[in-house]
Amino acid sequence: MDELRNKARELLESGAVQMVIGYEQGTGNKTRAVFVEDPVQVPRLIFDSRCVQNLAVYMTKAEVRKKGKPALVASVPVLRSLIQLAYENQIHDESLVVLGVSPDLKLIEFSNLSEIENYLKQYTLEISIRDKEILQKLENMSADERWQYWTTVLEPCFKCYACRAACPLCYCTQCTVEDNRPQWVPVASHPLGNFEWHIMRAMHMAGRCTDCEACANACPIGIPLNLLTKKIVMDMGKSFGDNGPSLTARNPMSTFRPDDKENFIN
Amino acid sequence: MAEFEPKIVAFVCNWCTYAGADLTGTSRIKYATNVRIVRFPCTGRIDYMLLLKAFGEGADGIIVSGCHPNDCHYTSGNFHARRRWIVFRSLMDFMGIDVRRVHFSWVSAAEGAKWADVVNHAVANIRDLGPYDSYKKLAQNTEREISHG
Amino acid sequence: MALGFYPGCSLKGSSREYNESVLALARAFDIQLTEINDWNCCGATAAHNLNKDLSFALPARILALAEKQGLSEVLVPCAACYSRLATTLHELKKEDGLRTRISEVIGLELKASITLINVIQLIEKYVLPALDGRVVKPFNHKVACYYGCLLVRPHGILNFDREEEPQTMDAVMAKIGASPIDWAFKTECCGAGLSVSRTSTVSRLSGKIITDAVDRGAEAIIVACPMCHSNLDMRRKSINEFTGSPSSIPVLYITQALGMALGIERKELGIQRHFVKVEI
Amino acid sequence: MARIGVFICHCGENIGGTVDCEKVARTVAGYDGVAYSIDYKYMCSDPGQSLIKQAIKEKELTGVVVAACSPRMHEPTFRRACSEAGLNPYLCEMANLREHCSWVHEKSDATTEKAIDLVRMLVEKVKKNHALQTIKVPVTKTALVIGGGIAGIQASLDIANAGHQVVLIDREPSIGGHMSQLSETFPTLDCSQCILTPRMVEVAQHPNITLYTYAELESIEGFIGNFKARIRKKAKSIDEKLCTGCGMCITKCPNKKIPGEFNEGLGTRTAIYVPFPQAVPNKPVIDRLNCTYYTKGKCRVCEKFCPTQAIRFDQEDEIIEIPVGAVVLATGFTVKDTGFFPEYGYGKYRDVITGLQFERLASASGPTFGEIRRPSDGKIPQKIVFVACAGSRDPAKGIPYCSKICCMYTAKHAMLYQHKVHDGESYVFYMDIRAAGKMYEEFVRRAIEEDGVNYIRGRVSRIYEKNGKLIVKGADTLLNAMPVEIEADMVVLATAGVANEGSEELAQKLHVSYDEYGFFSEAHPKLKPVETNTAGIFLTGACQAPKDIPETVSQASAAAAKVAGLFSKDELSREPLIAVVNRSAPPLYSTCVGCFMCATACPYQAIEHEEIRDRKGQLIKTVARVNPGLCQGCGTCVAFCRSKSIDMEGYSHEQMYAEVMALLND
Predict the structure, then answer these.
(1) ipTM of this predicted structure
(2) Does domain C2-119 sit in CATH 2.120.10.80?
């Protein structure tokens, strides 16, 4: 904690960064993002197991960018997102200073993104056993049961797009749902539209999702929509050996192997 | 009451399957009338959103077909498509969409007879499955989008 | 170091000296060889021409027994047995259907998980690494290493050494002070398949092998196969009659040559059993 | 408001017999946006076409749907008709009522219903069409020919004679390639160099050809009509302008024992050398790996004796950059050496040689001045064995394919041997004799019947040396596999023709595809034999697959014709049906977020980075741009782009969407 604050202060005072993006105590037992621009505000910074929001999302926000170079408090899931963003040309070494926080809450300093990439090698992206079981349970259902499940689960969605806003990788300046030539996805939140939105979102995450769960955490009505992306992450691993973000090569959906296996094309 | 006639949309590539279907014609091989072909330059161009749209608009079944691996006119469009289908099909299945209604195939420009088989097989199979009511129900009371006109 | 051991019929009969020298070598480098209980004929070389299933069933039973005994790596000194077992193992691994069928035929569970090694592999793997300082009587003779047909073929299955121009035996012999000659008959046929039915053919084929080895100045022929040995050694009389240029070049198993270099008693290596006196 | 004209063709009975065309016309007329709808017996006929043209003018149509045969058949016809009537051709679409409907269904309401659907789809699509202009790409009328063998020479001369500039590069010090090494050529037995060298000289003297020998392609970028090639001119260590090619340096060079490449190692050369007497250019280069000065730091004898002071020890490689419009790959092939064959002695027997080495022995300019003498002791072999298919057609140990030329040159070799060694005995081991070609079979028969070459159908299992003889063991499969053993003095292996070392790297530099053997792949095995999958890059000769001289030459001329065709216009126009990344007003500029994950989806490297800057040159954002010269219009990137920022002309999101909707909403 102190080492984090000290580092933050040092960075701000030295002018190395214009802002530190981290977590502070929120209302109730919640934590929330804080943007510290003035060294005296540094004490607001905290970090503990409750800090799950993926701060990498701010790296692509224009209003944050125009404030100058930030330092970002980043736990493993956030680090993954940063690497993916770097691969997608959204950030580079000069874009930010990373204040890494290890799972045992130690401060780790990284001088560049490839150091982060190396650090992450010990945490290769894989779906947790618990999640695997949940997915398995769904897969064991009959198609109709699954249909029932999803239509019921997605029915209450009212397209607030909090999931999109919370996802560091949903940074498109114009999302396909706002594209009306043609209107790919109905604007209104009716069953079909909801369904199409969530399928499309999952597909857009294919080979990119880092399973940070920000989307599900953000959903105001607790739709387990990260099950879809988890399913995809798992498929990506199974079908194409994808094992998470990389600075040089993670693009399973726009690359191929001539011997990709499939059992449904006649 | 007449037998159920499924509505089937076929998304095919221009160079192999579309040409193959032309050959079915020139060789006067007969097949079921239920299929309407939509012509794409390449399977690589086929957008999975269009499959959803087809179901949303009341299709009972879908055929997706293009060049055999290594035969792509654009060398690799079908390889990219194949990956897309692997992921998308698995996701559809995971969400309970009836993947038995989506028939994928490779049909080359020389396989006129195969095209007829693909269609007849799909039609028979989807006729057995009956109309895709569950999806139609989902689509009900969905106001029509402005951009059709 | 513990290994499974499948001697096969030759080593129990016509080639006892091979058996003896293998065991002697094993002792010298304390390698425990556990013989497979109740082992049966490998089916060489007739079975695979007569009945495919039988030709798989016989070796399969041996493999199954070895598995049952909990053996993972099995030494098969006889080249013919080795070839049959390896071929069977290869087919069983390739085809699950065959595995289950054969396992029914022999009435034994069959995982096809065994690793097989021949004598040369044994030497490379367990002897050479421990050889330093053990050679007391360098085998300083010109030798012709004769691999025969079964040791390196079919390459697709055994993938051991270079099928047309094998080198491993030569390398081993060089290690114990011998100078292997470059000759042309390393993998030519000795006529084993006809050693009973058409002895004249054996004499002709084996004759050429011996003549070339002798012409190129070899003082001994080194083998790793009972068939090769019995043809070149036991049938020497008729061979000599056939070639008309009698030769007394001895034929040694590589294990015997090694044993001699290590200073193991000649008797322990069964050298005295040869028809052609070993005077080196 | 769209004003679409629909024209339904009966195609005589072909459509009319099965589909109720009037009904289709009537129904379609009712759709909104359809201003005119009519059926007619033959739309492709002159009256049919003028019907369309007339309607376009009179009804002021904004789009046309012709419901007739397959667009793959008549789309060009009707699009031309439209443009003649002043309507942009890309506002015309075809509904396939024949191949996809009338020919595959019986006459029935269902069939007519389908016809109506098909037409409606296209009506809805064409509403979303917009006028397109064919893409014009400027063409640099210079061709880069890589490889100066007969293929490259022929291609260069043909292109140059068509009046275009050619840059010919060869990595060797001289052009000529393998053909210059050959003695006589089958089936006419005319001397290879006699027919080749005049061509080589012609290349050197041709005003339109720039020749760089001892040069290799460093890198290439760009696209059809607009490549930029960087060429490495390896240091020859001489000043070519001063050098007169007198050859003094060569005679004086003390380092004379270097095995010569041109003689396939059967002869020697000096460190400063010309590969062979008729070399073009006939000026020496210094082989730095073998030159005593470069290896030991002293000598410089050549420098002392050079009458024109042309030696340049300090010369360095030079990289030159040249714009070219087309590339012709003519890098040829090589043959496996005898070391590849364990059963034939791993190359340890000096008198077991390759066919190419035999060519040198048989050649008047060779190390033995055309006498067949064996390498080991220079004796004339009395018994010689030729082994065809050495490595070819041998999936187990060699190459699965047939090297194609061996049957013929082996027959030639045997023939030449018999002509030169009258009392000699020659044997040929073969699998099959493949002598398909003009006068080829006759040629082989002549070898067998007139020159008494012994052909044995069977393979050679082993060759070994025994008291000065090469024992060749094989089987005669025509005498039910009877073992054959020949005591030969010399053996010639017709070793497999294989791709050049490093052909893969070259292919990757040029983004052309290559097969599992390293040969370059043609764009279509039958219909595009000299094109590659990269527009503007052509191939010819044995770099595509082993082939003989006549075939190579005709392929070279074919490639040249393609290049000349490409160069015949100042601009090349291409179908505008390609992908485009959208552009919009500031501050957005484009919905593309520049993730460039589409780049790997493009088979043509057509996706470029475009930097959008403000007036001060400040970088605002980097977005994707599709290079219209490279894009072939597969649309893979379009379906991949998450934000739908890439769209495709002719198959746009709106068009495909409209088709699907039209199909289902009724």
Answers:
(1) 0.66
(2) no
